[in-house]
Structures are given as structure tokens and as C-alpha cells.
Amino acid sequence: MPADDLDKTDRAILAALQNDGRMSNARLAETVGLSETPCARRLKRLENDGYIDQYRAMLSRTALGLGVVAFVHVRFAVHDRATATRFEREVQAIPRILSCHNVSGSADYVLQIVARDLDDYGAFMRDELRCLPGVTSVESALSLREVKPYGGLPLS
Questions:
Q1: Residue among 30, 28, 31 nearest 44 (CA)
Q2: Does residue 63 belong to any structural domain of this protein?
Q3: Which of 17, 49, 56, 61 stands the most exposed, by the fewest C-beta atoms within 10 Å?
Q4: Which SUPFAM superfamilies does this chain map to (predicted)?
């Protein structure tokens, strides 16, 4: 189903679940102004149609002792499919790399990385990131503070 086929109620269900993925069907139905059975049917359809990928908890970086967030531009000297495939496969296996985007512009990839502190981040750069296939240069931008955390996708 194309996104244009989502009605106001479908969008309200998706918005409510982005704010609280553990919301019960009863509370969700009340929030969007439906009775429980039609709400459950709509939710099942939204899941089956792929609008909801998964449910997960948002963990606190601070509570977990991950005080450093870095956005890293990675550059390759040689651009071949095999190297990119190996790089992407290895990045997938590193938990502290929260996201990886293949981008246009001066960098080949932009990564979001977390670390306990600057020493931990430096060791990760030296011992892991710079050793990945294809990497010839990296440029880090350290987050000083998060102004707007990930709050979900726009649904308007």
C-alpha cells in the first residue's frame, strides 16, 4: 500500500506507536478514537503492509556509560564493489556503529559511532575503524550535545 493510501487514523496509529511502542491495543484504540477490534485489525494491516518494521526499546546512552557520539566521514581511495561489500558487511557486525550511510559528496560513508569516552573512541578508531577494508581516511565530528534526538519519522 503506498503511503498516500494511509488515512488520518492509520497515521494516528503510527504516530502513537512511535511515541510508545509498548502501548496496549486498548490504549491505542482510545488514543486514536476506535474500538479495540477495528484498531487491532488496522494495526495488523499496517504491520503486514510493512509500515511497521519492528518494535524496540530506546536505551539511554548516558545510563549505559556511552558519553561520546561521533559522526565519521569515511573515504576510500579505490571504489570497487568487492571492497564496498566487505566494508559494509564488517560495519554491520560492529555494535558501536549505530548507523552507516553510503553518501554522495566528499565522503563515501557517514557513520554514527558511540564510545565510553575519548580514550575509548581513539582506541576504536586506531584498532578497528581504520583497519576496515577500503578505508583510507576518516574525519570525525564529535557531538557536543544532542539538540533533537531521533523522534520518529514524519507522518504528515
A1: 28
A2: no
A3: 56
A4: Dimeric alpha+beta barrel, Winged helix' DNA-binding domain
